[in-house]
Amino acid sequence: MGLDYSIEIFVKEAKLIDALHWLSEKLYDYDEPKFLQWENENVKIGGHDFKNDKNIFKDSYIHLDNGISFTASLIFDIDPVIINSLSRHYPYCFDAETFKDDFENYYLGNGKIRIGGFDTKIVKYKEDEVYHINFTAVTTAMSSMLVESLFVKNWIEELSEASEAIVSYIDMESCGHKLLFYKGKKIDMIISDPYDIPQDETAVFFNEYFKLIKNH
Prior knowledge:
Strands 1, 4, 6, 7, 8, 9, 10, 11 and 12 form a nine-stranded antiparallel β-sheet that branches. Helix content is 28%, strand content 35%. The protein has seven helices and twelve strands. It is of the alpha+beta class. The model has no long low-confidence stretch (mean pLDDT 88). It has helices at residues 16-23, 80-89, 99-104, 140-148, 150-163, 201-205, 207-214; strands spanning 6-12, 34-38, 41-45, 48-51, 61-63, 67-77, 107-109, 112-124, 130-136, 167-171, 177-182, 185-191.
C-alpha cells in the first residue's frame, strides 16, 4: 500500500471565513466555480464532487453547515520537488518527447502549478467551535511532496496565518506528525508518536494540539 499523508489544519469557527477566502485563490477551478455559503457570504471555492453525509451537490451554491467533502487541486508556487512528484505520479507521462505538453496541463503561469486531486474535507469538530480542514494525498508521490517541498510548507504556513489556525501539521501516518504552525507561530518539529503524550513541559505547551488529536 502507498502513503496517504495529509495536511491537517484546525481553525476557530470565527476564523473559518478567513480560511475560505484564502482558499478561494488557492484551489483550482475545474469547471464552473462553486460557492460555499457561510456567514451570509458566498465564497468561491475550486473543486468537484462536493458532498456531505446526505447529499451530492450539483448546484453552484453549497451550504457548508457542519461539513462537506470534495476533490481539490491545490495551487502551489512551483519548485523541483513538485515537478518531480508529477513525474512520479504519472510515470507514463513527462518523458522527453511529451514533457512540454504534459507539463502545460498543470502549469498555470506566473510560477504557479496545480497538484491534485486531494481528498478534501471541511468539517465541524465535534461540539467545540472549531473547524477541521483536511487535504489527503492520494498517492505516495503526492505524500512525499508534502513533507519535502519548501513551497508546500509555505502554503500551509500562509493559510495558517490567514486563518489564525490553532494548529497545522502534516500527518505522516506511522511516522508521526510534522508540526508547522501552533498558536500563532511557525514551528518545524516532528512528534513521532502524537498519541503517546509526554509527561513533561511538552504536554503543557502543546496541550491544545494533544486535545484536538486525541478526540480526532
